[in-house]
Each structure stands twice: as structure tokens, then as C-alpha cells.
């Protein structure tokens, strides 16, 4: 395999890892606050649909992004209301949101656009296009460095850069700010936060809203950056993979990036290897290659990460004890 | 009958006449559903004093303090802090009013450092950096002033409970608390740790701070408080000057009738060993040795007590003996002499006439959602008397349950009532009735009176002694040293999974306390007369404070 192939696979890994990373960080905020969120998938899907619909009507990618975030926040607040205010079961609420999003997007898509649930194809203005970083053209012909810079670093759309910048930002928020300290505390022992005079519900609602914003961006990426429109069920389990990556990363931002990149890479490799002839085995069945990331997810989660201890208060509604 | 007006001082109405009290509660009432937890409570806490609040479980002590700390809102009544009426509806309000609280179950974040725990909620800015360095300096100062040594960078979960408690006190002082509430602070401490805590409290008092101490241990009240209020059934029945009262008087006020604080029992007449444990070791699922090479025997007609601070292997020992957990090595033999150590089968142990009252009735002893009669046969439900084939004979079960309830004075005497609706003492009696009425040869008892009222404690102790006198072998595990000393004929002290020594029942609290902390004094001096009379004050023998 030559350098160009490797760079191309890595380049494609970055694109495929982006929605995972955004969803994974979204889950990180929510779960660090003690609210398990299996509804990342649904929020992403709703975000994708409303991004595509708004971008189609207004012709603006930015308005599409805003619509995605708004839709996703609404679902996040539903989850928050169910699990924080009403102290319901967080898994049930999350699953409900996934079903709601899957059904609602298909239904509204058909009702509004009559294309079998799809949204119409978007023009260039209604999408986030590739950004060429300064100096990329000039460096293009420099061997190795230039190729890596031009192909791998430069030439992605805005959301890709946002996703990767969210990693250090999240780390900083979590470990260097008051909000981060309280967020980490409330996921471990909400009673400690409560007796310290800080509102547990308000903290958790903020975490859930941040989760909504990030899943909204992830959804917008799917519909109006990576593709040019919405397709039924286009999130295709990415919300679940993001959750797996979150566990794999033990709820920490930098490892989350590593985990998402790994899953993106596996995805990229599987696409690349489709139809390729592998020695001894011969042509690899497409289905096997598509299943590969999932198989590896199971293997990695089952045995290779050691003990992943979730935030102690995760999934448990906070009730003042009597 | 004593009443509130014997307090040296004034009632809330005349607050403005002299120096105002640190805390004054007036007419506080609080109900949870149909249960009235606090009824029209008036309480005055003088500034710069240590004020004790005693009462049985469910008397409403914790509820009252939670109201003062803003955790609950009172249905009616007023709170005055230094003569000024305050509305306290959240812990934040309480903190602002200069009230700090050390909860019975610590409110700490395990995986945070001491420093992070201390600043949580009082970070002093959006970014942590400034607050952290300010807190570090402040902790240094508090450490010097109050003997509150603790490493600010240690992770709280790794600290022993005594130090975790110091972190809680530091949290309150860091927030500028003038009044500190401590809810059952010594339950988890060794005697020497408790001693250190009391030194800290005296230090706080000498600096003009006010301390409210909630406890059910009368000895602590006598040792450290200036005034004491006694609560019963949601009301304050008396407030007294500690110097002018006695433990007997306090106990009587708490329970509402005369109580025997001492267990009356005759000499033991031990017979043949009924439980023999040889070189027993237990390694837990994480590969940590919990019990190391433990050997002892329990004979017919004696109570052997195992003393130790919670978490030193007593629980695992009980689990191995009762067949819940396999032993890693060593032998466990009952009267018939067969080694059972590797046969972890609780049902088989029961058939071999070994009964077990688990340490934690909620987790292991009872199914809280069951009706009382169902819990009364749990573990023995296959017995022929309770049904035929796969069917249960409900009327037989209920009839028997009713009988046991009467015998053990379990209230309310309704076998159909959900177990969760019984008080702690009555729940414990359900477990005891189930295990003791099976007439076992060997009885393992873990924390028989944890969370149980004084009145019920008296009963339970009496039952245990009666079983001993009937020739049964009883192994008693308790973290309450008083209980161990009152009941045991021999005392084994466990520390870090090992039995570090055996003493007679006359061994002093100080000596046992040191052994519980891993300091083994010279052998053989355990039963001298002079130590037997070292009662009353808290274990003074803590000159050799174990390393912090």
C-alpha cells in the first residue's frame, strides 16, 4: 500500500469519524451528568432531517444547521423532562425518542416532499462545502508533508473542524471550569452537589441541552455536509456506535476522539476493501466488510478495554433521601 | 418530667433580651404523608456550645436537622440564626446563614481529590484555577487551627472513613460555617478516631463555633456536650444541662419508660465446640485477601464476639461461614465434623442447623417488597410445613408468622403488611424470629441492633443471651464495641482480615480500640482489674494514635 492510499483511507476515516465524534461528545456531557442517553441516534436523525428540510426551503446551510440544533434540543429536553423532572427510566425514554425520531422523520419527509421520505437534492449553497486551508495549494506538491496537509488536514467542511476542536474544548470545560467540576460531581454523587447548595436538576438540564446541540450538529453533518439531503434512517446506528465509543473511551474526551477515529477507520477500510481480492480468502463478501466495524466493536468492548466504570449515579434518578 | 423550660436561657420569644442563641427553632412541624416526623419543635442552641440531640431511630432528629440545613422545608415554624429570622429552603440558604452539616452518609465525590470536594459549590469563579489555590491556602490554615490534617491532593475514595469525615468538616468550615451539625458522626469510626473527632469538636468550640451533635450513643453525649435535647416521636421531650443528667435518665426520656442499659447475664457454661474454623482464608472477586488465616471455635453455651471496624473482613468471614461465599482455603466444621469450607451452599448449612442473621437486613435479610409472612419463611420456604409440592400453604404460613410476631412483639402485628412498612427495629426482629425460632445449634449474628431502637435492643440482647443459656453457640459480629463487650463471653478482634487477639469481656474499650486499629498491646494484660473500671469517658488510651 502506498502513501497515497494510506492518506486517502485516513482522509475518509476523518470524514466518517466526524458524526461519531460529535455524538460521542454529546453523550459524554449527558452521561457525565448522570443522564444515560441511548437516544443519541434519534436526536441525530431528527437533526439530519430538519437540517435538510430547512436548508432546502431557505437555501442556507447555516439555517439548516440551526434547525437541526433546535430539533435536537427539543428531543433532548423531552428526555430531560422524562428523566430529570419526572424521574423516569432513562433507557425507556431514550428508546422512545429513537422510535419517535425514526417514525417522525419518515412521515414528515413523505408528507412534505413526497419522495419516499427523502428530501430533495440540495444545491451547493445549502450545504457546508470543503474548506481549503491556507497554503494547502502551495504545499500540495511537497512530498509526504504536502500530501498529508493537502489531502488529510485541509479540504474538509466546517463541521469536521468543529468536531475535532470540540475535543480540547470539552476537556478544558470538564477539567478546568466550575461547570465541569460540578458536572463530573453530579454524575458521581448528586447528593454531594445538592448539599453543597447547587441545583442538581439545573446542572443536568444544561448537560442535556449541550448534548442536544452536539447531536444536532452531528445530524446536520450527515444531511447537509457529508450528503446532499436526507435519506430515511440515514443515521444508520451511528448513535449506538458513538455510545460504544464512549464506553470504550471511559467517558474521557481525548480517548473518545481516539475511539471514534478507530471506528471511522474501520469503516473506511471496509469500504476500501469491498470487492478487493485478499490473498488466500479471495474476494471478500461485501456484507462481511460492512459488518466488520460492528464485529470489532463487540470484540473490543467485550475484552480489550479493561473495566469501564460509568459515572456512578448514571441512570439513577436523583431523589432526596428520606 | 423534664421540659423545655428548664433550659438555662430563654424561649424563642425573648430572643432579643440577651445575647441571641446561635440557632433557635420555633414551632417547627413537618409531615411526610401521614407520618408526623416533627411536631411543634422549639429548640435553643447557645452560641459556642456543643449541643447534643438524642433520640431513637425515627424520633425525628435527622429530619429536624435536615430542615435546619434546608434539605427539607418545614410545614410550619420559624428558624432564627443569631436572633435573626431566616428563611432556609435550600442548603445554599443554610450555607449563607453560616450553617454547615456533616451527614451520616458522607456527601463526597469518591473519585475527586480532597481539594475538589472542598471547593465543589464554592469554587469562587468560573475557572477553577484561582479557587484551587485559594482553597489550598485556606486548608493549610484550618489544618493548623483545628487538627484537621488531610492531604489535599489525595483521592477521597482512597481515604479511610475517619479522614473522609474530616474532609466533610473542612467543607463546612471552608464555607465559613459558624454552626456545625454532625449527624451520627462516630458510627463509622474506631474509638481513637472518635477521640480525635471530639478533640476537633472541642477545638471548634474553643474558637467560638457552635456544634450540634446528633447521636444515639449516650456515652458520647455525656462525654462532650454542654446541653442535650431528647427527642421522642417527633417531639423534643426535654432539654437538659449535660452535667446535671445521667445516661439512665436520658435513656428513660428517649424510650418513655425505664430501660436497662446493661445486659443481665450469668456466667457462661461452655460445652463442646459446635463451630470450628481452622486457617480460614477468603479472597474476593478482585483478588484481594479479605480474611487471612483465621482460626477459632465457638462452643455450646457461649457468645463469641468479633470486634472490629467495619470493612476489616468481618462481612466476608460471616459470608464464608454461612455458605454464601466459598472459602479460598482452610476448614469450617460444625458439630458433625465434616469440612464445609468449599461447599458454598446456604441451604445445606441451614439443614445442618446453622442459622445466619445477616449484617444488612435490607440487602440480604429481607425482601422489602414482600409481605411479612413471606419474609418470615424466606430460606425455609421448602419446609414441608409451608406447603405441598410447588404450592404454598398460605394459611399455615400466616398462622405461624402471626405467632412469631406475638412472641417477638413485632409491631404492627399484621403478617400481611409489606415489610418495608415496618420500622427498622421491627424488621430486624422479623429476621431474628425467622432464624432463631428454627432452633439452630449455631447462630451467626451480624450487627443485630444496627438502626434499632433502644427498647428493641434490650429485647434482642435478651433473646441472644437466652439462646446462649439454652446451650447454643453464637458468633456475634458487631461494629458497636459496647454491644460486643456487653454480650460476649470471649472477644476476638479483627483487623485487616486477621484475628489480632482474643480478650475476655472485661477488656477495656481503650485496649480493644487499639487492637481494632491494628496496634496489638502486650499479650496477657487484657483482663487486669484496673482496666475493667476504665469506663465512662471515651477511650482515653489513644495516646498512640494510629497514623492518619
Which two chains share the most extensive interface? A-B, 22 and 33 residues
| Strands of chain A, count | 4
The SSE order of chain A reads HHHHEHHEHHHHHHEEH
Average of pLDDT of chain B:
86
Kindly provide the radius of gyration of chain A, computed on alpha-carbon positions and rounded to a whole number of angstroms.
Answer: 20 Å
Strand content of chain B: 15-25%
**Structural category of chain A:** mainly alpha
**Beta-strand content of chain A:** under 5%
Which CATH architecture of the largest domain in chain B?
3-Layer(aba) Sandwich
Assembly of the depicted chains: heterodimer
For the largest sheet of chain B, list the strands in their spatial order: 6-7-8-3-9-10
User: What's the shape of chain B?
Assistant: globular
Q: Which structural class fits the helix and strand makeup of chain B?
A: alpha/beta
Query: How do the strands line up in the largest sheet of chain A?
Result: 1-2
Identify the notable features of this structure and list them briefly.
heterodimer, A: 322 residues, two-stranded antiparallel ribbon, 13 helices, globular, B: 548 residues, Rossmann fold, six-stranded mixed β-sheet, 18 helices, 21 strands
Topology, please?
The complex is a heterodimer of chains A (322) and B (548).
Chain A: H1 3-32, H2 40-58, H3 61-85, H4 90-113, E1 130-131, H5 136-139, H6 145-153, E2 156-157, H7 158-176, H8 178-188, H9 190-195, H10 200-226, H11 238-248, H12 253-273, E3 277-278, E4 282-283, H13 286-304
Antiparallel strand pairs in A: 1-2, 3-4
Helix pairs in contact in A: 1-6, 1-7, 1-10, 1-11, 1-12, 2-3, 2-4, 2-10, 2-11, 3-4, 3-10, 7-8, 7-12, 8-10, 11-12, 11-13, 12-13
Chain B: E1 23-32, E2 35-45, E3 50-55, H1 61-68, E4 76-81, E5 84-86, H2 91-96, E6 99-102, H3 114-119, H4 128-146, H5 161-174, E7 179-183, H6 191-206, E8 210-215, H7 218-224, E9 227-232, E10 235-241, H8 247-255, E11 273-283, E12 289-299, E13 302-307, H9 314-322, E14 329-334, H10 346-351, E15 354-357, H11 361-365, H12 372-375, E16 387-388, E17 391-392, H13 394-407, H14 424-436, E18 442-446, H15 454-469, E19 473-477, H16 481-487, E20 490-495, E21 498-503, H17 509-516, H18 529-532
Parallel strand pairs in B: 3-8, 3-9, 6-7, 7-8, 13-19, 13-20, 15-18, 18-19
Antiparallel strand pairs in B: 1-2, 1-4, 4-5, 9-10, 11-12, 11-14, 16-17, 20-21
Helix pairs in contact in B: 14-15
Amino acid at each position: 500500500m502506498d502513501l497515497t492510499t494510506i492518506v486517502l483511507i485516513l482522509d475518509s476515516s476523518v470524514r466518517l469519524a466526524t458524526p461519531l465524534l460529535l455524538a460521542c461528545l454529546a453523550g459524554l456531557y449527558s452521561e457525565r451528568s448522570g443522564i444515560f442517553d441511548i437516544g443519541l441516534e434519534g436526536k441525530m436523525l431528527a437533526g439530519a432531517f430538519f437540517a435538510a428540510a430547512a436548508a432546502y426551503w431557505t437555501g442556507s446551510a447555516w439555517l439548516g444547521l440551526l434547525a437541526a440544533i433546535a430539533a435536537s434540543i427539543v428531543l433532548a429536553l423531552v428526555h430531560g423532562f422524562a428523566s430529570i423532572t419526572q424521574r423516569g427510566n432513562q433507557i425507556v425514554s431514550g428508546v422512545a425518542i429513537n422510535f419517535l425520531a425514526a417514525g417522525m422523520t419518515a412521515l414528515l419527509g413523505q408528507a412534505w416532499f413526497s419522495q419516499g421520505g427523502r428530501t430533495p437534492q440540495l444545491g451547493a449553497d445549502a450545504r457546508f462545502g470543503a474548506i481549503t486551508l491556507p497554503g494547502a495549494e502551495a504545499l500540495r506538491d511537497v512530498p509526504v508533508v504536502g500530501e498529508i496537509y493537502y489531502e488529510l488536514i485541509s479540504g474538509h467542511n466546517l463541521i469536521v473542524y468543529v468536531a475535532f476542536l470540540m475535543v480540547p474544548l470539552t476537556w478544558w470545560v470538564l477539567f478546568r471550569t466550575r461547570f465541569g467540576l460540578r458536572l463530573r460531581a453530579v454524575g458521581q454523587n448528586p447528593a454531594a452537589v445538592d448539599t453543597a447548595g447547587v441545583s442538581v436538576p439545573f446542572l443536568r438540564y444544561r448537560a442535556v441541552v449541550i448534548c442536544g446541540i452536539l447531536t444536532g450538529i452531528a445530524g446536520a453533518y450527515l444531511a447537509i455536509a457529508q450528503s446532499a439531503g436526507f435519506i430515511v434512517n440515514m443515521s444508520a446506528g451511528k448513535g449506538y456506535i458513538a455510545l460504544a465509543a464512549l464506553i470504550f473511551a471511559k467517558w474521557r474526551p481525548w480517548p473518545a476522539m481516539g475511539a471514534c477515529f478507530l471506528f471511522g477507520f474501520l469503516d473506511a477500510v471496509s469500504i476500501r476493501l469491498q470487492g478487493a481480492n485478499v490473498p488466500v480468502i479471495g474476494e471478500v463478501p461485501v456484507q462481511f466488510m460492512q459488518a466488520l466495524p460492528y464485529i470489532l466493536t463487540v470484540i473490543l468492548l467485550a475484552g480489550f478495554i479493561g473495566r469501564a466504570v460509568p459515572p456512578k449515579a448514571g441512570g439513577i434518578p436523583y431523589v432526596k433521601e428520606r | 418530667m423534664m421540659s423545655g423550660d428548664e433550659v438555662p436561657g430563654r424561649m424563642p420569644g425573648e430572643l432579643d433580651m440577651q445575647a441571641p442563641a446561635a440557632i433557635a427553632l420555633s414551632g417547627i412541624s413537618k409531615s411526610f404523608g401521614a407520618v408526623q416526623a416533627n411536631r411543634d419543635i422549639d429548640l435553643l442552641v447557645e452560641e459556642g456550645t456543643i449541643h447534643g440531640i438524642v433520640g431513637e431511630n425515627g424520633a425525628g432528629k435527622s429530619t429536624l436537622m435536615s430542615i435546619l440545613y434546608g434539605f427539607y422545608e418545614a410545614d410550619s415554624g420559624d428558624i432564627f440564626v443569631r436572633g435573626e429570622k431566616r428563611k432556609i429552603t435550600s442548603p445554599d440558604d443554610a450555607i449563607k446563614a453560616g450553617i454547615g452539616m456533616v451527614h451520616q452518609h458522607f456527601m463526597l465525590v469518591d473519585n475527586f481529590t480532597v481539594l475538589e470536594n472542598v471547593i465543589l459549590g464554592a469554587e469562587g469563579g468560573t475557572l477553577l484555577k484561582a479557587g484551587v489555590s485559594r482553597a489550598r491556602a485556606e486548608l493549610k490554615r484550618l489544618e493548623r487551627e483545628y487538627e484537621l490534617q488531610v492531604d489535599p491532593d489525595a483521592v477521597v475514595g482512597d481515604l479511610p472513613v475517619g479522614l473522609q469525615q474530616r474532609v466533610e468538616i473542612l467543607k463546612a468550615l471552608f464555607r465559613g460555617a459558624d454552626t456545625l451539625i454532625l449527624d451520627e458522626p462516630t458510627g463509622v469510626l474506631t474509638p481513637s478516631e472518635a477521640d480525635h473527632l471530639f478533640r476537633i469538636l472541642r477545638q471548634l468550640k474553643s474558637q467560638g463555633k457552635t456544634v450540634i451533635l446528633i447521636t444515639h450513643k449516650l456515652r458520647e453525649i455525656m462525654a462532650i456536650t454542654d446541653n442535650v435535647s431528647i427527642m421522642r416521636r417527633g417531639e423534643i421531650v426535654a432539654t437538659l444541662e449535660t452535667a446535671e443528667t445521667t445516661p439512665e435518665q436520658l435513656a428513660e426520656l428517649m424510650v418513655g419508660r425505664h430501660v436497662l442499659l446493661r445486659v443481665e447475664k450469668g456466667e457462661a457454661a461452655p460445652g463442646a465446640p459446635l463451630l470450628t474454623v481452622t486457617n480460614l482464608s477468603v479472597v474476593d472477586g478482585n483478588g484481594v485477601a479479605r480474611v487471612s488465616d483465621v482460626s477459632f471455635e465457638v462452643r455450646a453455651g457461649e457468645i463469641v464476639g468479633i470486634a472490629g471496624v467495619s470493612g476489616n473482613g468481618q462481612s466476608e468471614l460471616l459470608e464464608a461461614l454461612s455458605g454464601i461465599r466459598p472459602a479460598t482455603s482452610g476448614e469450617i466444621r460444625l458439630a458433625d465434623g465434616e469440612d464445609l469450607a468449599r461447599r458454598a451452599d446456604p441451604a445445606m448449612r441451614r439443614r445442618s442447623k446453622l442459622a445466619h442473621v445477616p449484617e444488612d437486613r435490607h440487602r440480604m435479610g429481607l425482601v422489602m417488597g414482600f409481605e411479612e409472612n413471606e419474609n418470615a419463611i424466606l430460606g425455609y420456604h421448602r419446609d414441608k410445613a409451608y406447603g405441598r409440592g410447588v404450592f404454598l400453604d398460605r394459611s399455615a404460613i400466616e398462622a405461624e408468622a402471626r405467632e412469631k410476631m406475638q412472641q417477638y412483639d413485632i409491631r404492627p402485628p399484621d403478617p400481611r403488611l409489606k415489610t418495608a412498612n415496618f420500622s427498622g427495629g421491627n424488621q430486624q426482629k422479623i429476621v431474628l424470629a425467622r432464624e432463631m425460632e428454627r432452633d439452630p445449634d449455631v447462630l451467626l449474628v451480624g450487627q443485630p441492633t444496627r438502626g434499632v431502637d433502644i427498647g428493641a435492643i434490650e429485647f434482642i440482647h435478651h433473646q441472644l443471651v437466652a439462646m446462649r443459656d439454652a446451650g447454643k453457640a453464637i458468633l456475634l459480629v458487631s461494629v458497636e464495641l459496647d454491644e460486643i463487650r456487653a454480650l460476649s463471653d470471649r472477644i476476638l478482634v479483627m483487623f485487616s482480615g486477621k484475628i489480632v487477639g482474643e480478650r475476655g469481656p472485661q477488656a477495656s474499650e481503650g485496649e480493644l480500640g487499639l487492637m481494632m486499629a491494628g496496634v496489638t498491646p502486650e499479650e496477657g494484660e487484657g483482663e487486669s482489674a484496673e482496666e475493667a473500671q476504665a469506663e465512662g469517658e471515651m477511650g482515653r488510651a489513644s495516646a498512640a494514635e494510629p497514623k492518619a
